[in-house]
Write a structure and sequence with these properties.
Blueprint (H helix, E strand, L loop, with lengths): L8 H9 L20 E2 L9 E7 L4 E6 L3 E5 L2 E10 L3 E10 L6 H11 L4 E2 L3 E5 L2 E12 L2 E11 L4 E10 L3 H14 L1 E2 L19 H4 L14 E4 L2 E4 L37 E23 L4 E8 L4 E6 L10 E6 L9 E9 L9 E10 L34 H7 L11 H5 L4 E2 L10 E8 L6 E7 L4 E6 L15 H14 L2 E2 H8 L4 E7 L5 E8 L5 E7 L2 E2 L6 E3 L3
Antiparallel strand pairs: 1-2, 2-3, 3-12, 4-5, 5-6, 6-11, 7-9, 8-9, 9-10, 10-11, 13-20, 14-15, 15-18, 15-19, 15-20, 16-17, 16-19, 21-22, 22-23, 23-24, 24-26, 25-29, 26-27, 27-28, 28-30
Helix pairs in contact: 1-2
Length: about 575
């Protein structure tokens, strides 16, 4: 079960000159605003493509390449040959959506040339993409001795809406990709991008063959001394409805949904009719004796459960057709007897099929892994108490460093929802904001959103004001953070300390969280809700890209959000 996110060189090229408004996303649980990302692809002229993929936020649909690995990461589509070189391809990358400012195709092409001197571009020629005028260029480059060739297409659907497609391959494999590129481009349909649509944040589709799965493990009970029980410390999924609500990280830790119903504290796939999966990782590898799956909404749609050992070998421990059950919430228990086999398991994967019973979204609150250590000994438990609760009026750290200590981020911190007025924002940040749109209405009192390029790591701030001219929300574009913000305190031990406090007190004040991590954290979002509560999302990162997430309601992390430790795949 090795899921590899291929980072093609040309993806960086695209991001150099495409600054799309992906951060301006409203995540709504209203079913009427959600459309399936995948539908039947009706193409009679090509057997190279399978189904159609539709991106509402990007303003386009495209045929998925048959037998290619497909990913959508923060709105960037990648389709790669199973044996693709991680730098050169063969691969196709697609980006669509709204730019920050109006631009012409000539301006975008010139920007690509200027910011990518390591590549050569042919003269752009006119083409038609779904009846819209576009421009195509041949692209050549060299990376560590590998000659790379490809094609780039740019279409300005409107002065602000852009569509870009790049296809690349090693020179000796271009003929193989060229027909696929032409078929994919011919399948493109363009329509008005909807910045209010949900952006899918998915990870690559499973890379496995039937030979790598192994035989079904017998499901008889086993009762072994030294048994330990543990909850996941990180999680990832094929898709998630939004982030952080209903994200894969919501299945980390103990169950925290105590009723049957839709709840943001459980993982839900992006679509209510999809076949999907979630993979949980645990701190201690064990010889498994039991897996318990806590389903808090529309249970009974699991069709397969896998365990993954420390070598990433996969074993199916349960498989069957989704079958209606009357209990909700429901705990699905799978007992194991490995018959003497020493399979040290650190991951559990749960696969769901929501297309059979048509119940709607399945939601998984938590998954418990039970087992023993090799030799039958449980890990020694420390007798120490959780760290003492710290008074709520204690001071949080202010040891900002690097870019976060500079005037732009410090000015961003001084923008306070509910207090800062619209004419004060530019002065605080020392930047000139660009007006976005007054037509997007995330709440009835919304007046406008202003966009600020933060001059670091492609980060963009989105600051929204209401009809009274006062800021009610500020955020920094999703999946971006300062690259010089890396902490040694973001690790399993610190998470365990925080989890101990949370178990004892059922609340963690922001200052306690920040002091244990020895950093004030990166404030990615702060919003004054219409119910009067202030909600702030802070992130802490280590050098690997692992992150701890704290969502604080009026300065306190409670069961509303819970703890989150997300491992970077």
């Amino acid at each position: 079960m090795k899921r590899k996110l291929i980072s093609y060189l040309f993806l960086a090229l695209i991001l150099m000159f495409v600054s799309l408004a992906c951060g301006l996303v409203s995540r709504s649980s209203d079913d009427s605003n959600l459309k399936d990302a995948v539908s039947v692809f009706n193409s009679s002229d090509s057997d190279l493509l399978s189904e159609e993929y539709r991106s509402e936020a990007g303003g386009y649909s495209i045929g998925k390449v048959q037998d290619y690995n497909f990913t959508d990461t923060i709105g960037i589509i990648q389709m790669a040959s199973p044996d693709a070189d991680p730098v050169a391809g063969p691969a196709i990358i697609v980006v669509g959506g709204l730019n920050d400012v109006d631009a012409t195709a000539d301006e975008r092409i010139q920007k690509a040339r200027e910011e990518s001197p390591q590549f050569s571009f042919s003269k752009a020629k006119k083409i038609k993409v779904d009846g819209k005028e576009g421009w195509e260029m041949e692209v050549e480059g060299d990376y560590d001795g590998t000659a790379i060739v490809g094609r780039m297409v740019i279409v300005m659907v409107t002065p602000r809406q852009q569509f870009t497609l790049v296809a690349t391959a090693p020179e000796d494999r271009w003929k193989e990709l060229e027909k696929i590129y032409e078929a994919a481009l011919d399948s493109v349909k363009l329509f008005e991008a909807n910045p209010d649509a949900e952006i899918i944040n998915s990870v690559p589709v499973e890379e496995q063959t039937t030979d790598s799965i192994g035989e079904v493990v017998p499901v008889e009970e086993q009762n072994t001394g030294g048994e330990i029980r543990q909850w996941a410390v990180s999680a990832r999924a094929g898709s998630q409805y939004s982030d952080p609500d209903w994200s894969a990280s919501q299945a980390v830790g103990e169950p925290n949904v105590d009723y049957c119903g839709d709840n943001t504290n459980a993982w839900a796939p992006y679509s209510p009719t999809s076949i999907d999966w979630i993979e949980l990782t645990y701190a201690t590898p064990v010889l498994p004796t039991e897996v318990n799956i806590y389903q808090s909404y529309n249970p009974s749609q699991v069709y397969e459960v896998d365990i993954v050992d420390t070598n990433d070998d996969v074993y199916i421990i349960w498989a069957g057709e989704p079958e209606y059950v009357s209990t909700c919430p429901d705990v699905m228990t799978i007992s194991l007897d490995l018959e003497g086999e020493m399979i040290e398991v650190q991951k559990v994967a749960v696969l769901v099929d929501q297309s059979i019973l048509n119940l709607g979204w399945v939601e998984i609150d938590a998954v418990e892994l039970v087992g023993t250590l090799p030799g039958g000994q449980a890990p020694q438990q420390t007798a120490s108490e959780p760290p003492a609760a710290v008074t709520e009026n204690m001071s949080a750290p202010t040891n900002y460093s690097g870019w976060m200590a500079g005037p732009v981020y410090q000015g961003y911190l001084k923008v306070i929802p509910g207090k800062t007025k619209v004419d004060e924002i530019d002065k605080l940040l020392g930047l000139e904001g660009q007006r976005s749109t007054e037509n997007w209405k995330p709440r009835p009192t919304h007046a406008d959103t202003y966009i600020y390029k933060l001059q670091k790591d492609n980060m963009i701030a989105w600051i929204s004001v209401d009809t009274s001219g006062v800021v009610y929300k500020k955020s920094i574009s999703a999946n971006t953070q300062p690259s010089d913000f890396q902490l040694g305190t973001v690790n399993q031990d610190t998470y365990n300390e925080l989890n101990a406090i949370y178990k004892r007190d059922q609340v963690i004040p922001y200052a306690v969280y920040a002091n244990l991590l020895e950093s004030p954290g990166f404030l990615s979002e702060q919003v004054l809700r219409e119910d009067g509560r202030m909600v702030a999302t802070y992130l802490w990162f280590n050098a690997k890209g692992d992150k701890m997430v704290g969502i604080f309601y009026d300065g306190k992390l409670t069961g509303i959000a819970g703890l989150s430790y997300v491992s970077n795949p």
